[in-house]
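Quick one:
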Amino acid sequence: MYQRIISAAFVILFLTATLTGCATQQAAAPVEAAAKPAFEPFHGIVDMAFVKQHVSIPMSEDVMLVDARPYKPKYIKGHIPMAVSIPDSQFDKMTDRLPADKNSLLIFYCGGLKCKLSHKSARKAEKLGYTNVKVFAEGYPAWMADKSHYPAVSAEWVKAQIDKGADMTLVDSRPKRKKYDKAHIPTAISIPDMQFDKFKDQLPADTSRLVVFYCGGLHCKLSHKSAAKAMAMGYTNVKVFAEGYPAWTAYAGKASTTAGAATAIKAGVEEGSIDHGEFKRLVSESPGSLYLIDVRDADEYKKGSLKTAVNIPIDDLEAKIKTLPADKPIVFICGTGARSGEAFYMVQDVRPQLKNVFYIDGEMTIKKDGSFTLNKPI
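Output:
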């Protein structure tokens, strides 16, 4: 009965909000058409209380929380702690990450009520025979809206902050003599969780400064406990590198090179992104100077896209990367910056020599006539 009530409430929310998948906004339409959701929600919807009930450190062997958003740029810079990354576009290639027991509880989430990636992945999991599949439809935005929560980040993100000299305090929560003194992540300070109160004065005086805690991996609670203590002290920008030192040693030795972006186009804040003002100017003044690729699904594209944009759904992009033109800048677009960002990094992996590749990082609402609005990313 509880599940039926939750599912019914979610469907009502979809109908009233006129959700738009990776986000298109249609022009005025008859009431009958407007009442239909942009995509069919998965039948098993759960709420925040359900998710919090099943998130534990370490996670139970019969529960898996799955982030269906792109690994880059979304998952690495912020995800629900203990979530596993299985991007929907890569689902078929990563089924080996799913639990062997088909009765395990699988909870999929993505970028919120406008995002259908988790719904698509949940259906794929059911087709594989999993019998206890749920979707946390409110997803990552709802998790972060709760001020008592913090995000987890990945090794790639931590290394990027270190490399660029970010204003960050990196804290090793492991015992000092047994662990930190033997080896630790560069720039990290030692504040063992068991002695947190004794050494907490090493934390920055500015409580708005970025503070990232780590310890010995996904089975280690120390970094999570320290993060909670820091937040109780008033720190407002706290993250946890939950995979911790084992993941760092596995990643740090790898070369991490990406194709350089053209200096002729003003870049955005995130790697590979294009500045919003620059994008608007180019689309307005010289739309033919860009090769725009809408990586949303075909049904979303048909409801409205930029007039010069071609449609290559993210699920089909990898096979077509070698055919992309090199004579003009390529800009990937979607509705939230998730799939467009994934497209950018996919190009770096498959065809790194291709220069002048960008993506829109932010919420993009496109009308039927091709007009659009851009907002900051979720």
